[in-house]
Write a structure and sequence with these properties.
alpha/beta; D-Maltodextrin-Binding Protein, domain 2; eleven-stranded mixed sheet; 44% helix
Length: 366
């Protein structure tokens, strides 16, 4: 009798149990497929790089992998704030190299999230333009090395501003338009704040409550002629004649001028900020030897030039300057020198980020 019950149970439930178990293990297989693959087939040499989406050319990575046998896995972030949050969350675990802008390097360095760089292993260090070394965010470059730079200026449609072309400056962004047009403005609170502060007071530090109020006031007034707040993908608005003018990095402007002769880019004589992008090594990596090989490959004159060609960011390698199209390298708006360079400033961390974010929220809600 018991045998019959067992047999009936098996006939009734065993196929269902088998099917359930099959699908259970199938799901597990697909969930952990990448882990199985990495365990059995992953390359013996691999580094993980956390970078801006347009900072490291894919072609450079492919060539490096071919020459060295070292696999480079790129993971992307959109802005410095995302990078900072991620590295703080897991202390940089899982990454062997990062790219980061100037002010973010200072924050990461003070959080002890970066490994000290062995400069004796950097082959191209003597080729770095001295203007981008020993800056406030890493005074002795113990934790970062510059890889590229750009300036913030104004891109505009030439035929609409032909009578004003020699006079375009930040007044065209912060004052009532001289005729009926709209602009694209930056969407990054920190950069907007520093641009407005320097425009109004020629500085961004030691600002009184009243001066912060003036910054808020001018940004609220500016909203009337802002079509959209945006830092990237400006092509649509400019090429489609939605706006004739935008605040833009030289990197974007370079790509736009290659597409269309209808536009020009100017670095206002009142001054502006420049951005230094850097490479740094997270503190917990154990693959420093592989990382240094990649850094040395990435920072050659040829590959630095390729970054400019593909993404528009100015190289810091002095030898790369001779390889760049004269249309840009001899243009003082894209590659400012002398007095023009002296009018540039870096964005720093002197103003509390909460102050900036609160002010920006008030502007957006106004």
């Amino acid at each position: 009798m018991n045998n019959e019950k067992i047999k009936k149970f098996e006939n009734k439930f065993l196929p269902k149990i088998t099917i359930i178990l099959f699908y259970f293990f199938l799901i597990l297989f697909f969930l952990y497929l990448s882990s199985f693959y990495n365990f059995f087939f992953k390359p013996s040499k691999v580094i993980n790089v956390f970078t801006f989406t347009d900072m490291i050319p894919r072609s450079v990575v492919s060539e490096f992998e071919k020459k060295t046998g070292i696999s480079v896995r790129l993971k992307y972030f959109d802005n410095n704030e995302e990078l900072i949050a991620k590295l703080k969350l897991d202390k940089g675990s899982g990454y062997d190299l990062i790219t980061s802008s100037d002010y973010a390097i200072e924050l990461l360095r003070k959080e002890n999230l970066l490994k000290k760089i062995d400069k004796s292993k950097i082959i191209n260090i003597q080729d770095i333009d001295s203007r981008f070394l020993n800056l406030y965010f890493d005074p002795e470059n113990n934790y970062s090395l510059p890889i590229a730079w750009s300036v913030e200026g104004i891109v505009f449609k030439k035929n609409l501003f032909k009578n004003y072309q020699n006079f375009i400056n930040w007044d065209f962004i912060f004052k009532d338009p001289i005729f009926d047009y709209k602009i694209c403005m930056l969407d990054t609170p920190r950069e907007v704040f520093y641009l407005a502060a320097n425009y109004l007071f020629n500085r961004s530090y030691d600002l009184s409550k009243e001066q912060l109020g003036f910054i808020k006031e001018i940004l609220i007034k500016q909203k009337k002629w802002v079509e959209i707040y945006m830092s990237g993908s400006l092509q649509y608005y400019l090429l489609a004649d939605i706006v004739p003018m935008a605040v833009s990095s030289s990197a974007f402007a370079k790509k736009l001028l290659e597409i269309s002769d209808d536009f020009d880019f100017i670095l206002p004589k009142q001054g502006s900020f420049f951005i230094v992008d850097n490479i740094a090594i997270p503190v917990h990596t154990n693959k420093s030897d592989l990382v240094y090989q990649f850094i040395n490959f990435l920072t050659t004159a040829q590959n630095s030039t390729l970054n400019f060609v593909e993404h528009g960011y100015n190289p810091v390698n002095k030898k790369a300057y001779s390889l760049i199209n004269k249309k840009f390298i001899e243009n003082n708006n894209f590659f400012p020198i002398g007095e023009n360079f002296k009018r540039l400033y870096l964005i720093d961390n002197k103003i509390d980020i909460k102050t900036i974010e609160d002010l920006w929220l008030s502007v957006k809600l106004a």
